[in-house]
Design brief:
The chain is α/β, with parallel strands linked by helices and 311 residues long. The protein has 12 helices and 13 strands. The chain is globular, with a radius of gyration of 18 Å. The chain binds beta-D-ribofuranose and calcium ion. Keywords: Glycosidase, Hydrolase.
Length: 311
């Protein structure tokens, strides 16, 4: 079973990723770090706690992450896409008591699963960057990092060229892609293709009798309505964060290329992800190459998603 420490901002697609991870027989989520992003950090924490309580997995530690980016700038939330509380029309009950542990638990988990653990970040990179800043060499004990973010040679989703996660804290993302060992980036190039249609979601809802079943359709419908307003003619909604987790346990699902990645920090180009895609790119003396997902095998992704969500 692949041990995964998940950083995210649930959020609808983050929540679907958490559900997918909790149901997957080859994934062992060993901790969740919740940060600001789709909604506030307090709310993402509450949403993650709700999902864990539905699964009866309150044993999984919840770690409070960043409330704003490293730059200290104020943050914009996305209730129009993810709902006022981040779960579309669903409001997590007030009586959930999250199993919150100190941020140091990140390092305890990394040491416990030395060279085995994969860190997946499907939100702004702020909390993960803080782990690098505080943890130093401990971070070399992580086997690999998977980040959802960026848009390479395709349009962005917050500005013409920038994607939301990398735009949210580009200082943090640069730090992570430079210092992280074995970084894989899962950008909009592939996640925009990972479209779930209302028919598929309806099928999953009808076929599932897991504790998450009543949630799936209402949260997806809210998310899909938002996408319909922004992308005329779209037939479903993209499961950005699910693809990122799914890529780990389905290694042939994506085609990758390795490039040096940097993120633009300021001004109109803030958050744009830059890589040199020429066949022989210019390399600096000691470049850090990151693996970038370029092409998705949709059939494989969707079959696996349906299989797991109907368990
Ligand atoms: C990413 O931004 C967030 O809104 C989603 O949860 C996803 O992680 C897509 O750009
Ligand atoms: Ca997310």
């Amino acid at each position: 079973m692949q041990k995964i420490l998940l950083f995210g901002d649930p959020g609808i697609d983050d929540s679907l990723a958490i559900i997918y991870g909790l149901l997957h027989p080859n994934i062992d989520i060993v901790g969740i770090v919740t940060s600001y992003g789709n909604v506030s950090q307090e709310q993402t924490e509450q949403n993650a706690a709700y999902l864990l309580s539905l699964a009866g997995r309150e044993d999984i530690p919840l770690i409070s992450g960043a409330k704003y980016p490293l730059s200290g700038e104020s943050v914009t939330f996305y209730p129009e896409i993810h709902g006022p509380e981040g779960l579309g029309p669903i409001r997590p009950p007030d009586n959930i008591v999250p199993n919150i542990v100190n941020f140091d638990e990140v390092f305890t988990i990394i040491e416990r699963y030395e060279n085995e653990l994969i860190i997946v970040d499907v939100g702004r990179s702020s909390s993960l960057a803080i782990a690098f800043i505080l943890g130093g060499d401990i971070m070399n004990k992580v086997k690999a990092f998977y980040l959802m973010g960026g848009a390479f040679l395709v349009p962005g989703n917050v500005t013409a060229k920038a994607e939301a996660n990398f735009h949210g804290d580009p200082i943090a993302t640069n730090l992570v892609v430079e210092r992280g060992r074995n970084v894989t980036i899962i950008p909009l190039n592939v996640t925009n293709e990972a479209i779930a249609t209302p028919e598929v979601i309806n099928y999953i809802s009808r076929m599932s009798d897991n504790p998450f079943a009543p949630l799936i359709e209402p949260i997806f419908d809210y998310y899909f309505e938002a996408y319909k307003k922004n992308v005329p003619g779209i037939q479903g909604a993209p499961l950005h964060d699910v693809v990122t987790l799914s890529a780990i346990v389905n290694p042939t699902m994506l085609e990758y290329t390795s490039r040096r990645v940097t993120i633009e920090l300021f001004g109109k180009t803030k958050g744009e992800s830059i890589a040199d895609f020429r066949p022989t790119p210019d390399l600096e003396p000691f470049p850090t190459l990151d693996r970038i997902g370029m092409q998705l095998n949709y059939q494989l992704f969707m079959q696996d998603f349906v299989n797991i969500m109907t368990r």
